[in-house]
Amino acid sequence: MTERINGGAFKxxxxxxxxxxxxxxxxxxxxxxxxxxxxxxxxxMSLTIQxxxxxxxxxxxxxxxxxxxxxxxxLLRGARGNxxxxxxxxxxGMSKSCKNMNEMDGAQLAAxxxxxxxxxxxxxxxxAEGTVLTVSRLAAARAVEAAGENxxxxxxxxxAIKAGYVTLEETIEMNPVLKxxxxxxxxxxxxxxxxxxxxxALQGEAVPEVEDTPEQEKADFGMISDEEIxxxxxxxxxxxxxSELSLEPLRAYxxxxxxxxxxxxxxxxxxVHVHTDxxxxxxxxxxxxxxLELAKIENMxxxxxxxxxxxxxxxxxxxxxxxxxxxxxxxxxxPEKRYGFLAVCAGxxxxxxxxxxxxxxxxxxxxxxxxxxxxxxxxxxxxxxEVVFVLPNNKNITMAAQQCVxxxxxxxxxxxxxTVPQGITAMMHVDLDEQDPQVMAQTMIEAASQVTTxxxxxxxxxxxxxxxxxxxxxxxxxxxxxxxxxxxxxxxLLTKLANLAxxxxxxxxxxxxxxxxxxxxxxxxxxxxTSACPGAxxxxxxxxxxxxxxxxxxx
Length: 555
Fold this sequence. Notes:
Layout: H1 7-23, H2 25-29, H3 41-57, H4 64-78, H5 81-97, H6 106-123, H7 132-149, H8 153-174, H9 176-181, H10 186-202, E1 233-241, H11 248-257, E2 258-265, E3 269-276, H12 279-286, E4 290-299, H13 319-327, E5 337-345, H14 348-356, E6 361-364, H15 373-381, E7 385-391, H16 398-402, E8 411-414, H17 420-428, H18 437-448, E9 452-458, E10 463-465, E11 468-470, E12 475-479, E13 482-487, H19 490-503, E14 508-513, H20 519-532, E15 537-542, E16 550-554
Parallel strand pairs: 5-6, 5-7, 7-8, 14-15
Antiparallel strand pairs: 1-3, 1-4, 2-3, 9-12, 9-16, 10-11, 12-13, 14-16
């Protein structure tokens, strides 16, 4: 058995853990509670730890302390979603514990895991049982016991994993939502997969090469049901420190204006995740401690669709590719005008619609085909304007777009549209005479917020969710991200959505038909909405989007 872990061994352990979770990310995604054909906890965790793997591959850490520091710093920058943030915090605590160590034995490993748990718990204001926090806490507790039995790093890690899996099975009973769905916690499962990979590396196995195959086209939704949302905006941002001030006053302030607070920090920066009704206040207060680097703000009430991660090719893959591209001297389009526009969408019809509205460049993607920062940055640089407005049209792409800020000589303004209809409406409210890009962005955001977005997709598995008994293969209707109805006949759901449009006194109804929707089905849908809303202007357009049979904009 391997008794001690040095810098090289820790590097291999993280690389192995990253390979394992990348190989099994879909298994983790499938544990997500919402029954549509997608989920992203596995993707988020995979992309998060891949950032650390990328940094470690470029280095030869001389000590376990150095290897842990490289890992923790990269994880903070690459963290995706709550699951990614918690994973980064667990490693951040480990890094602090072994800061000046050349090697680490079993007892020191147990102490590092315990410090990781402490760091994660201290950053979460209201930790819930039955999550990755519970799994990591009890795994670390067993590690401490095991170190007393045998001060051997390999033995301690193996025993911690065993205890973790026992706890993982118990998460079904700890969390009512998991119990109802009959699944274990996805984040806890992902963490144990990482630890298993680390153990295999410690046991001398060679790190496997994993081909990260493209994600299948499928729907992408959040796991939070509407009644669980107390505050509206999911807010995440990174601040580079300019002082040594304690973050405790900030933590207290943020917890007073929101919930689900998580703060991760290293020596140079801190990252905040909080649910709040006043994201601007949260960011403004945080700027007292440093300089804002990037941020995303997502309206959870209008959309439960989830991000990567990993996503599915979303942004925080690795900025090395972006850096390499910038250093290669790729030509940046000379500005021929003040404002330019870039939109992300999937489907030729949707792309054509955006072009008709004045969008200069299209990035192909959306849902699980989230484009990387590199892909977005390339198109920003190809946009012939001084200022480039980016419409991500999906909450899981916003962070990728935000990372482009500061990576190009062009001024980048991200308009955080969560759906294609929001993006289209935002473009319809562009005022090219407006001199202040931030004022114009706010106008576009306000216009987009007035749109009701309805979508029809299908269920990937049986589920009992939000009061709906759902069977695999059912059609699902969603309105602003919330499950609206389910049926075996798509026409039943279209009728309900047409009636909803009438109830909302919709004046402008645009229906984008997806891949495979026939001309006959299109005509029948048009007749349905025209009859239900005789005073409305009903427009049918071929969107060509995958996964969603219909995307409907109601204004």
